[in-house]
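DM from R.C. (forwarded with permission)

"hey, sorry to bug you on a friday — could you get me a structure for this? deadline for the figure draft is monday and I only need the backbone to look sensible"
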Amino acid sequence: MSTSTRVGRIVTFTAKPGRGEELASVMLQIAEGLRGSMGCELYVVSVDAAEPDKVRVIETWTDLKSADAALATTVATHADVDLNELLDMLVEPPEQLDVNPLGGVGL
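My reply, with the result:
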């Protein structure tokens, strides 16, 4: 197996009861803001089938610098996304799992 400079993340957001759909909508707005961002290879927003208040984002970037820059810029400049409102929807801080993508379909 070869090593990769790609950056992968699986982030789980847990919304307050009944707010999962609203949270997913905001995360989809963020995803739209990332469309065409340099270095973004994958950014998928999903709702947990068993727990609809859990929203998971799976993302892959060409490198860490691209990931951090694009996400910071998108959240800071996207008119429809208020970071404080997003954080207020959550019962706990997001859980982030960092992974090293090696390949597969979609990359």
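R.C.: lifesaver. The chain has a mean pLDDT of 87.
me: no worries. The domain at 7-99 is CATH 3.30.70.100 (Alpha-Beta Plaits).
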